[in-house]
Design a protein that fits this description.
Blueprint (H helix, E strand, L loop, with lengths): L2 H8 L10 H9 L3 E2 L2 E2 L2 E2 L5 E5 L6 E6 L3 H20 L2 H17 L1 H12 L3 H22 L3 H4 L3 E3 L2 E5 L5 H15 L2 E5 L6 H13 L6 E3 L4 H8 L6 E5 L2 H11 L5 E5 L4 E5 L5 H12 L10 E7 L3 H13 L19 H16 L3 E3 L15 E4 L6 H4 L6 E7 L2 H8 L7 E5 L3 H7 L7 E4 L18 E2 L4 H6 L2 E3 L33 E3 L2 E3 L6 E5 L5 E6 L3 H13 L8 H17 L1 H12 L3 H19 L5 E3 L5 E9 L3 E4 L5 H14 L4 E4 L6 H4 L1 H7 L7 E3 L4 H10 L5 E4 L3 H10 L6 E4 L10 H4 L1 H7 L1 E9 L3
Parallel strand pairs: 1-5, 7-8, 7-10, 8-9, 10-11, 12-13, 12-17, 13-16, 15-16, 17-18, 18-32, 27-28, 27-30, 28-29, 30-31
Antiparallel strand pairs: 2-3, 4-5, 6-20, 11-19, 14-15, 21-22, 23-24, 25-26, 26-32
Bound molecules: 1,4-dihydronicotinamide adenine dinucleotide.
């Protein structure tokens, strides 16, 4: 009875090792020592460090550490190659990418074995996932290259891209970075992580072999110092980084105010939510892929299990049973589930964190069984008995350690899931499609997997919310991240702001009652906390009026009410459009009054500016229900819905010139996309913005969606930049102030756009295109939903 089941219980697996010979031969053919690949040539090995096999401790090769001089040579080679490469037709560039994809497939086993030797990941994973996905990325982008002219009209490549990648998916991360960059016409300098440089070096050889023009791809090896030299190099146009949040923040700070393009794909602490009606066995298999895939060294690892209280005991019991069957050992063995971690320092890090968590009261379960005495092996672990405050719950462990908690209601599940500074990915298991699709939009994460986990595809964007970074890789969004509008390169420095006297008399207006412009917070007019006012003067120093001197407290109040108004983002797009149309209508009805106000403050004829503003708001109303997502069909039985979501609360520092048009050119796209805003009007002409209160009130703009705080833009903008309740900041400001804002934004890694003292011709609405702002007002969340009965 039950004989087959019994056989499976006792079946002993024999070892099924993969042969390392060809990979070792390849290392030997290079004398086990590597230089850098710069301008299509190999430099002599110099300043070397060792790279070893973390499963055995054996030294594999000597790698060179690039200094600032080497980085500079690589940047120069990339710059030299740029002109010809970007001038090739998309089809020509696509042919090179296609040849790379083919070559990766032809040498797939060599890449897979080398990856496993260098990284310690099970050969099953490098063979079935890392390398095929890397090839898929090059195929997908070979397809993009000839489409760019028509799909991204009036866009040009950034130029030279500096790309810094981590050690957890060495070749795959290289593919994610290099494929879109090259398809768009950029050239690159890429630095692999110091622990895992070998497949990048083999890739360089592939570039040579297929005849990729020299200097299009340059590979420099080294540790953090090499990365730093890249980030601070003046002649790099864009930095793309994947790695820790800590280094991501340092990079954000160094690049502040430089105008360099920047994408950051950082850490995570992704929730794995299991509802009581889930298919439990599938959810447990999913969990194995979520947290024990690649020894848990995965930025989007489902490392926080949230299971519904009613099934918790059963689920945990079955999970432990499954954990006991995971095979840990030689990563070159094809039947192994858990291989070696990348390096001793990572093992130590994980062990330290576990000790800390245990000291804070956590219970840690590890299945029985021996761990090899040599090599970086860590048993799979399940942590229970924890509160959200435990370090194991809040910190990214980056190891095979799952932390389990329970919830009672869907609302509690969402609250727990979002209770993290990260927002990379999330998984939801339920057989109820309505519940899944109700929860997915509420999860603050760039990727949501329903009834599946860790699915990746080149056609589907990947990237984070919050401190998991910004920018997307893959999909249309990922392609767009390597292109910029052509007008960007024509921007000229803005003229200096006219100096105006700050002394003025305030004669009694013979005709009108005195009028006080207050702050506008939560749909109400509020006096400034400071109790001070600042004068607004016309061109000739004539007194025009006074506005409140806003301070930190006013901004805090405004952000608080803006956060309460985040529901604006889920208001139907049709409704948002109707409100914006109404705003345009009401503004139009008061044309003369607004034009006079502009004239009084700036001396310019305001009529044209008001007319342009009405048109701008009207256009943004039109976009509200059209700038939306897509449905991708990845090569598996699933769809991925790319949903366009608002960023959250946006801080806006308006330009000094064109006070009404400048402000509404930013506010209208921001609110059209569902973001509540806190606006700081210009210092010179704030009355055009404070006059908007009544227009906003009569246009049915809900309270808290538009908040206005007057005062010194440089001071108030910095408070907005530092505020963790603000998700994005747009600022017209000088170079110096823009740099200060971007540096101040690293706390919660808010997305920023600053004008850096450059002049924008806002009267010419067509020139910049509303889509530029709509893209900056939104982020894409990809929701994967499998199908098939
Ligand atoms: P890391 O962020 O230091 O390394 C990633 C890459 O950045 C490597 O190529 C490294 O050489 C480079 N780098 C380091 N310092 C730099 C600097 N100042 N400027 C420019 N580049 C620099 O990550 P590390 O130390 O290897 O791992 C530590 C922790 O980071 C992990 O335990 C994990 O929590 C997290 N991590 C997250 C990854 C992700 O995919 N989100 C990947 C790797 C690590």
């Amino acid at each position: 009875m039950n004989r087959i089941a019994q056989v499976f219980e006792t079946l002993e697996y024999g070892p099924a090792p993969e042969a390392p010979d060809q990979a070792l031969d390849w290392l030997d053919s290079h004398g086990r020592a590597f230089g850098h690949f710069i301008g299509g040539k190999w430099t002599k090995p110099a300043n070397t460090f060792t790279t070893d096999n973390p499963a055995t401790g054996e030294i594999l090769a000597q790698i060179s550490a690039a200094d600032a001089g080497d980085v500079d040579k690589a940047v120069k080679a990339a710059r030299k190659a740029l002109k010809e490469w970007s001038a090739l037709s998309g089809f020509e560039r696509g042919r090179y990418l296609y040849a790379i994809a083919r070559a990766l497939q032809k040498h797939a086993r060599l890449f897979a074995v080398l990856e496993t030797l260098d990284n310690g990941k099970p050969i099953r994973e490098s063979r079935d996932l890392d390398i095929p996905l890397a090839a898929r990325h090059f195929y997908h982008h070979a397809g993009w290259a000839p489409l760019i002219d028509t799909q991204f009209p009036s866009h040009v490549p950034y130029g030279v891209c500096g790309q810094i990648i981590p050690w957890n998916f060495p070749l795959l991360m290289l593919a994610w970075k290099i494929a879109p960059a090259l398809a768009a016409g950029n050239t690159v300098v890429l630095k692999p992580a110091e622990f895992t440089s070998l497949t990048a070096l083999l890739f360089a050889e592939i570039c040579e072999r297929i005849g990729l023009p020299k200097g299009v791809v340059n590979i420099v090896t080294g540790a953090g110092e090499t990365g730093e030299a890249m980030v601070s190099h003046d002649d790099i146009d864009k930095i793309a980084f994947t790695g820790s949040t800590e280094v991501g923040k340092a990079i954000r700070s160094v690049t502040a105010g430089t105008g360099k393009g920047l994408s950051l794909e950082l850490g995570g602490k992704s929730p794995y939510v299991v509802f009581e009606d889930a298919d439990i066995d599938s959810a447990i298999e999913g969990l194995v892929d979520a947290i024990w895939f690649n020894q848990g060294q995965v930025c989007c690892a489902g490392s926080r299990l949230l299971v519904q209280e009613s099934i918790k005991e059963l689920f945990i019991a079955r999970l432990k049973r499954r954990m006991a069957t995971l095979r840990l050992g030689d990563p070159m063995d094809k039947a192994v589930d858990i291989g070696a971690m990348v390096a001793p320092v990572q093992v130590e890090r994980v062990r330290d964190l576990m000790q800390r968590g245990a000291a804070e009261g956590a219970t840690i379960y590890e299945p029985d069984g021996e761990v090899p005495s040599v090599g970086c092996f860590v048993k799979p672990a399940l942590v229970t008995n924890v509160s959200p405050a435990n370090s194991l719950v809040s910190e990214e462990i980056f190891g095979p350690v799952l932390v389990a908690m329970s919830f009672r209601t869907p609302e509690e599940a969402v609250a727990l899931a979002n209770n993290t500074r990260y927002g990379l990915a999330a998984t939801v298991w339920t057989e109820n499609v309505n519940l899944a699709l109700d929860i997915a939009p509420k999860l603050k994460a760039g990727v949501v997997w329903v009834n599946g986990t860790n699915n990746f595809d080149a056609a589907v964007g990947f990237g984070g919310y919050k401190e998991s970074g910004f920018g997307r890789e893959g999909g249309r969004e990922g392609m767009a991240a390597y292109l910029k509008p052509v007008w960007m390169k024509d921007l000229k420095p803005a003229p200096a702001e006219p100096k105006r006297s700050d002394r003025a008399t305030n004669p009694l207006d013979a005709e009108h009652l005195d009028r006080t412009a207050k702050m506008y917070i939560g749909g109400k007019q509020a006096r400034p906390d400071s109790g001070y006012s600042r004068p607004v003067l016309g061109e000739n120093g004539a007194f025009v009026g006074e506005v409140g001197e806003g301070n930190r407290k006013d901004i805090r109040n405004a952000v608080e009410v803006a956060r309460k108004a985040l529901g604006w983002g889920t208001t139907a797009a049709h409704t948002r459009a109707q409100i914006l149309y109404y705003l345009a209508e009401n503004l139009d009805a008061r044309r003369t009054e607004f034009a006079e106000r502009i004239k009084a403050q700036t001396g310019a004829d305001g009529a044209a500016e008001v007319a342009a503003t009405v048109a701008r708001v009207f256009v943004c109303a039109g976009w509200a229900d059209k700038y939306d997502g897509a449905v991708h069909s990845p090569p598996m039985r699933a769809i991925a819905a790319a949903m366009v979501e608002p960023l959250g609360v946006l801080g806006i520092v308006a330009p000094p010139e064109l006070p009404l048009l400048g402000t509404l050119s930013l506010v209208a796209p921001a609110i059209a996309m569902g973001n509540p805003v806190v606006v700081v009007p210009s210092a010179t002409a704030p009355l055009s913005v404070t006059d908007l209160y009544q227009v906003l009130d009569t246009s049915d703009v809900p309270a808290g969606v538009v908040n206005i705080v007057t005062g010194d833009p440089a001071v108030l903008g910095k408070v907005l930049a530092e505020h963790d309740g603000v998700d994005g900041l747009w600022a017209f400001a000088s170079q110096e102030t823009s740099t200060a804002f971007e540096k101040a934004s690293i706390g919660n890694l808010k997305q920023t756009w600053t004008s850096r003292g450059l002049a924008y011709d806002l009267m010419d609405a067509q020139r910049y295109g509303a889509e530029f702002w709509l893209a900056r007002a939104t982020q894409v969340k990809n929701v994967w939903v499998p199908y098939g009965a």
